[in-house]
Amino acid sequence: MRDGYLAPIKTDSLGEKYVAENIEAFVENLPDFLLQREHPQYYGKTNLLSCKGIIYLPNVQWCERASEILRKRNINSYTIHSKKDNKSDIARFKKSDCGILLACQMCRYGFDDPQLAYVIIAQNPSDPSLVLQMVGRVAGVDLDKIGYVL
Description:
six-stranded parallel sheet
């Protein structure tokens, strides 16, 4: 990374261990979390719900459950995983002004969206290089934003 080339990143913690009961509580409360959690700086948008983000969950079932919960609250979400065709969801996400991309393994490498404001890593990757790849999704060339990683 060259100084002045990638967006700065602020990291934070969800404050919980990555165990099944904590993931369940996080997913069940996801709409309120996104509404209440402030983004440190993203073009005047104040909370995570008002901008675009990726949430990495442990598996397809958690992605589908999170999508169901968000849909019930009329929150734009796009579920990306190996058990479905993802091209139209990725295209719709990239065209949107705000929304949440839910993934477990996909979109770790090579996924770029300059408007991506945050990444939430709600899984425990076995390889530290995977964490770097997920964090890198918000470090795209945009010197006017701060990428936010939880």
